[in-house]
Specification:
The protein is an all-alpha fold and about 140 residues long. About 60% of the residues lie in helices and about 0% in strands. It is built from seven helices and no strands. α2 crosses α4 and α2 packs across α7.
């Protein structure tokens, strides 16, 4: 009997991240779609408890949040350098269930990301929110 797998939209995003992380760019800039996938993975790794505990804890705490601490900035730097490559569907589900509001994301962005990268992070965040809210029927790869 064949084995059946139920793939979710989170599995698909995780698979896409694995494919992008396996590519060698040899000093070249990744394509726009690959860059967007990388930034989505960085955001997941930055906000998931398994990769960035201090950030996760700050996001779960009631206002006022302390998103401008050095530990949180360090966790983002680690996520953008290597941790994004190891996200799992469970990390994606966890971040999607956090319910991070746009104003909280903007506050985190202001304190932890260089100003010249704001636009690409905002684009990745918007795309990630669509992924969280969309149905698997809306995804072409399902």
């Amino acid at each position: 009997m064949p084995i059946k797998y139920n793939l979710t939209k989170f599995d698909l995003l995780s698979t896409k991240v694995k494919k992008v992380s396996a590519k060698k760019h040899n000093g070249e800039q990744p394509e726009a779609d690959e860059k967007l996938t990388m930034l989505k993975a960085v955001l997941i790794a930055t906000f998931a408890s398994g990769h960035s505990w201090q950030t996760f804890k700050a996001l779960k705490s009631p206002p006022p949040r302390e998103l401008n601490r050095p530990e949180i900035k360090k966790e983002h730097e680690e996520a953008s350098s290597s941790k994004w490559r190891s996200i799992t569907p469970f990390d994606i589900v966890e971040v999607s269930n956090l319910g991070i509001k746009d104003n909280v994301f903007s506050e985190w962005l202001f304190f932890n990301v260089p100003k010249d990268h704001y636009d690409e992070y905002k684009e990745a965040w918007g795309s990630l929110k669509k992924d969280f809210n969309g149905n698997c029927d809306d995804i072409e790869d399902c």
